[in-house]
Predict the 3D structure of the following.
Amino acid sequence: MLAGYDLGETFLIPLVGFNLGVEVGQLAVVGLSFLVLGWWLRCDFYHRRIAVPLSLMIACVGAWWFVERCFFPS
């Protein structure tokens, strides 16, 4: 895809720098989220009322997509 932009041979370093910047930004957001929500994540209430039901919902959506894409392709 990048060949269409005629970047020559020098596109590798900016591309790697951009990707590293994106990854560092994602790590910063996740780290900040754990710091802010850390005390709440250790509560039994969170595990019983939020983590388990949301995990089950995510698993159901994933199972639905699996069945839909494997057995009912469009």
Observations:
- The chain is about 80% helix and 0% strand.
